[in-house]
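Pipeline run #58 for the internal structure catalog. This entry was flagged by the ingest filter as a single-chain record with no existing model, so it goes straight to prediction. Upstream metadata was stripped on purpose; only the residue string is passed forward. Reviewer on rotation: M.T. Logging verbosity set to normal.
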Amino acid sequence: MTQKPAPPRPLSDDELSELLSTQRFGTLATNKRSGHPHLTTMLYSWDAEARIVRFSTTADRVKVKQLRRDPHAAVHVPGGDVWSFAVAEGEAEVSETTSTPGDAVGRELLSMVPEAARPQGEDADAFLAQAVAERRVVIRLKVDRLYGTALDIDG
């Protein structure tokens, strides 16, 4: 008789936070006027202590308009196999557009770059100037619900 694999198990809050911390890309879901989801794969930054997922985007993107109209959003992050994932749900806020190199939004954008890759000195100045030129904003997803599963496979 062949033994069936164990079903996926729910991940604990700590495991979900760890998964969000180790990944960099996720699928952001916002809501169209029709009620249908709008899905976008995005680079993100997870602040476990504040329970905020941050995304950098430009002010003219559809997702920004959708979030200003309806702030409900979620991000899906894959784990190591098809059965492992984390979902973070909550309400999002969109920052003002960075307008002066080094303003608060620009500094927040810079802080989202992983420390090992974060530009310094003149490179940081160039990053901040480019963020202004691109009309960048920060989407802050304030997480009020985390859920997901993992499939534990022996051998």
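catalog note: The longest strand covers residues 136-150.
catalog note: The first helix runs from residue 13 to 22.
status: ready for reviewer M.T.
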